[in-house]
Amino acid sequence: MLTDFKELENDVGFQQAVRTSHGRRPPMTAKFPGTAIGARPLATSFGSRIPMVSSMGRPVTGAVQDGAARPMTAVRAAGYTSSLTRGSTFDPLGQSRGPAPALEAKNEDTPEEKIKILEKKVNDLIEESCMAQSRGALQLALEKAKEAGKKERALVRQREQSGNADNINLDLTYSVLLNLANQYVNNEMYPEALNTYQVIVKNKMFSNAGRLKVNMANIYVKQKNYPKAIKFYRMALDQISNAHKEMRIKIMQNIGVVFVRMGQYSDAITSFEHIMSESPNIKTGFNLILCYYAIGDRERMKKAFQKLISVPLGIDDEDKYIPSNDDTNSNMVIEAIKNDKLHQMERDLKVLTEKYIMTAAKLIAPAIETSFATGFDWCVDMVKSSQYVELANDLEINKAITYLRQKDFNQAVETLKTFEKKDSRVKSAAATNLSFLYYLEKDFDQADRYADLAMNADRYNPAALNNKGNTVFAKQDYEKAAEFYKEALRNDSSCTEALYNLGLTYKRLNRLEEALDCFLKLHAILRNSAQVMYQLAHLYELLEDPQQAIEWLMQVISVTPTDPQTLAKLGELHDSEGDKSQAFQHYYESFRYFPSNIDVIEWLGAYYIETQFCEKAIQYFERATLIQPTQVKWQLMVASCYRRSGNYQKALETYKDIHRKFPENVECLRFLVRLCTDMGLKEVQEYTTKLKKVEKMKEIREQRVKSGRDGSARSRREGSAGSADSSHSSNSTKGERLSAKMRSLPGSNEPYEASSPKEIDASYVDPLGPQMERPKTGAKKRGEEDDFADEELGDDLLPE
């Protein structure tokens, strides 16, 4: 109902109410007995405020308290007045009262606070222990775990003393014990770890602690206590419900592996077959094939192989990661996930699966049929009908490699030639292997032909380019070979064979600095390659930096400490630097590992003669006599050592023995005459007559040489090691330096000084055999099993 305010002036009742006590309250005149206070004026919000009390003695809401007026909240907002009270200021926030008093400090002396602080310390120690383990600081991690255990025990005692034993933090106790056990395992302290796990398992207050028996079983496996490991695996299996299917499968797989290690293949087969029926996976399928192979069951091997290639991987098809041309947003998503961790995990799983399938096929192919070729054909047929159809061609190439291991080169070549009409990738791989085979057989024309075929099929195949360079290198066209090696490196910068061969090519072209650069780059990739380090040493020797050469050879020795050629080379370099003691040490070590090196034997014998230890030199020259029985100079050296040491009788017997074997040797007859004269023997006249006769024959031969006959070859047939003929002279080589050193030894008329021994080959020999100076081929070794394998195929297709 609406009210008409205009009619209020004419409303008699309303006007009467305004004029009477209904509209205006009378003044309050409360009196207090016994006081002088009389009537007080009415306090309003506009005048002076005087405290007013109610009948109970409480000030009314509008009263002034402590100098601050509190307004009637029904009329105005609190804290704001139209006039100020005497002595008061406008301070709605109460800032005039000063800062708030400080908070009361926590009392850390209470038992509850001490327990909380100690709990935090224990948690921090567990975290520090785990972080130290992740950094590889296993000892520090164990110390932190032990310290956490001590703090946790102190925490339990403190709870008991404070009467809070019922509030013990079981999760914290479990974490401390589990971390301590794990750190014991990481530090290979297995008994301590087992004791700690036992404490957890026996405590009924810990839920699901029985699963830790798997960890205990793993420790027993490491200790090779297989029966106990099986026992604990089975105990853990009993305590895990069927709801945790994946965990049960893993434990059963461990049981099967332990049975394999024990040689109980039937029990292992039972475990693996159960897994393949419940939740098949690649590793279990491969292990099952191994067990069937161990017991020689052909049919079950075939069935297991069929199960292996039918195991679902559960990964997406590679076509998913091929971008489409239409949807830009979809292409951006594909680009983001193409190389993420999930896709990398999928690729790794696929590579591992292909590796297991290839290995299983190579293993069972000779066993499932009467011949390995028939077995390979069966495996190829099975793979072609599976999801791994692309592996069929790689199995065919492995079939050719198996032929090579059996030395059946013709069958290997025929098998590889069948790929000439296949797709470009397989064709290039087969042609690369064929080029490698013909190169080994030194059929460089065929090697060149198949290298061209491999390049035409796949121009970016670095192995094919490398083999093409090798065939050109064999024809001594080094500049062209270098171009092929460079192209191979442009296509694949990690092709170490091409980089090695490029260094050899530059060395042949006498571009030593460029060769050095190649081998230094290769050394950065192959840090422990003895071949690369030896080539670096040889280059520094050619660059006339013997100290650097010695340093690189010492690195070779650190990798192959028993290599006799490297030790001999070190001895030669130290000898050229004048360090006889180091030279002797390295030559002696070289002789110890390979006592048939004539150069080393000659140097050691000459060293002992030079140091006046002729008796020790005899054993080396006697060994040289065994190695080269037709060389008279070694026998003359033995006789000379006997004579130098004062054993004239033994020297005479040795000279007589030499004269019987080499009756026309002038030096031997001269010493027989000298010894018989000094010893006063009757044979002196006989040997003098023979000497004159031999010298006469020698003069006749020299005249024939002057008339154009080649006397050097005849003198070798007659065993004349003491011929003065200079037809064998050559460049300054290691053999000449050794012979010159022996000629400089004391005694001007010694037989070994007048002799001109057969020139010793001083060509540079690499420590791992002559193949080091030969270019590396495109097919390279993989593991100890492979004689060679095609580089183009990749790691996943090569036998392990």
UniProtKB/TrEMBL annotation:
One MF term in the entry's GO annotations: kinesin binding
Reported function: Positively regulates primary cilium biogenesis. Also involved in autophagy since it is required for trafficking of ATG16L and the expansion of the autophagic compartment.
Biased composition (Basic and acidic residues): 699-719, 773-784
GO terms for cellular component: centriole; centrosome; ciliary basal body; ciliary base; ciliary tip; cytosol; intraciliary transport particle B; motile cilium
Protein name in UniProt: Intraflagellar transport protein 88 homolog
Coiled-coil boundaries: none
GO BP annotation list: inner ear receptor cell stereocilium organization; intraciliary transport; kidney development; non-motile cilium assembly; regulation of cilium assembly
Record-linked Pfam families: TPR_12, TPR_16, TPR_6
Binding partners and assembly: Component of the IFT complex B, at least composed of IFT20, IFT22, IFT25, IFT27, IFT46, IFT52, TRAF3IP1/IFT54, IFT57, IFT74, IFT80, IFT81, and IFT88. Interacts with IFT20, IFT22, IFT25, IFT27, IFT52, TRAF3IP1, IFT74, IFT80 and IFT81. Interacts with IFT172. Interacts with IFT57. Interacts with IFT46. Interacts with IFT70B. Interacts with C2CD3. Interacts with ENTR1 (via N-terminus). Interacts with LRRC56. Interacts with DZIP1. Interacts with CCDC38. Interacts with CCDC146. Interacts with CFAP53.
Low complexity: compositionally biased ranges: 720-732
Keyword Transit peptide: no
Keywords: Cell projection, Cilium, Cilium biogenesis/degradation, Cytoplasm, Cytoskeleton, Flagellum, Repeat, TPR repeat
Cleavable signal peptide: none
Locations listed in the record: Cell projection, Cilium, Flagellum; Cytoplasm, Cytoskeleton, Cilium basal body; Cytoplasm, Cytoskeleton, Microtubule organizing center, Centrosome, Centriole
TPR repeat ranges, renumbered to this chain: 249-282, 462-495, 496-529, 530-563, 564-597, 598-631
Record region (Disordered): 86-109, 699-800
Ranges of biased composition (kind: Acidic residues): 785-800
Database matches in Gene3D superfamilies: Tetratricopeptide repeat domain
